[in-house]
Amino acid sequence: MRNISDIIEGYLKKVIELDGKGHIEIKRSEIAEQFQCVPSQINYVINTRFTADRGYLVESKRGGGGYIRIVRVRAHTKAELIETILVSLELGASQTMTEDIVFRLIDEDVVTRREAKMILAALDRTTLKLPLPHRDEVRSRIMQAMLLTLKYEQLK
After folding, report:
1. Residue 122 burial by CB count (10 A; 0-12/13-18/19+): exposed, middle or buried?
2. How far apart, in whole angstroms, are the C-alpha atoms of residue 63 and residue 83?
3. b/e per residue, 35-44, with b = 16+ CB within 10 A?
4. What are residue 57's DSSP bridge partners?
5. Which DSSP state fits 151?
6. Crossing angle between the packed helical segments 78-88 and 134-154, to the nearest 10 degrees
7. What whole-number distance in Å separates Cα of residue 108 and Cα of residue 77?
8. To the nearest 10°, the Cα dihedral for 146, 151, 152, 156?
9. Of 102, 97, 96, 103, nearest to 147 (Cα)?
10. SS3 of 110, please?
């Protein structure tokens, strides 16, 4: 059974896709009322499910006429997407960051669900039993190697 966060995420993604502009502007209170939840639940969904690593840019304007704008950011090519991700991995990669990147790779049809599961299994904290920050550095290097392989596969 899906939880309320999954339902809200799915709704917002569907609205972004159906809108055709690649972005939406919402009022947190209106969405919370629609899903009969507290506004902080909407914040949680936006902060955890609409991150840069997942391919979204979030802007907000506070105040009475305030809004939250969620913009879907897509690379022109798969190789360009991979290159952007490689740059973001230069300082290391937490498990959450890795999961977000893999979700984006699935979403943009760079990897299959099966490949994503293998990547996540290889980069999980239980697999990489190293102390921090070494674990994040090793995770980043492994992810970079996987992405470089995918990038050159895409260029063939």
Report:
1. middle
2. 38
3. bebeeebbee
4. 71
5. H
6. 160
7. 10
8. 140
9. 102
10. coil
**Does residue 149 come out as left (phi exceeding 0), alpha (psi in the -120 to 50 range) or beta?**
alpha
Phi-psi region of 2 (alpha: psi -120 to 50; beta: other; left: phi over 0): beta
Q: Kindly state the tokens that stand for 129.
A: 């039993």
- Closest alpha carbon to 53 in 96, 24, 20, 17: 96
- Does this model's pTM top 0.85? no
- Give CA torsion, residues 93, 98, 100, 103, to 10 deg: 150
Output 18-25 pairs: Cβ under 8 A, ≥24 positions apart.
22/71, 22/72, 22/74, 23/69, 23/70, 23/71, 23/72, 24/69, 24/70, 25/67, 25/68, 25/69
For the chain, residues with pLDDT lower than 70 are: 1, 63-65, 154-156
pLDDT score of 99: 96
- Is 112 strand, coil or helix? coil
